[in-house]
Amino acid sequence: MKDKKNGEYEKFDDTMTQLLKVPHIEIKEKLEAEKTAKTKPPKKKKRPQATSVPGK
User: Fold this and answer.
1) What is the tally of structural domains in the chain?
2) Is residue 54 part of a domain?
3) What's the CA gap between 30 and 38, in Å, rounded?
4) Domain-embedded: residue 44
5) Secondary structure tally for the chain: helices H, strands E
């Protein structure tokens, strides 16, 4: 059981080491690209339809 936990820890440790090796600028660029891809163009406001005035 201890070997399994040790192996899991090593796997976790390797993953965290790889994650921390990624430069901050690379992460920031990907986040910005994702953010701009998600933004939608603003919706146009609908103008209210003209209503008929009774009696005219």
Assistant:
1) 1
2) no
3) 12
4) no
5) 2, 0
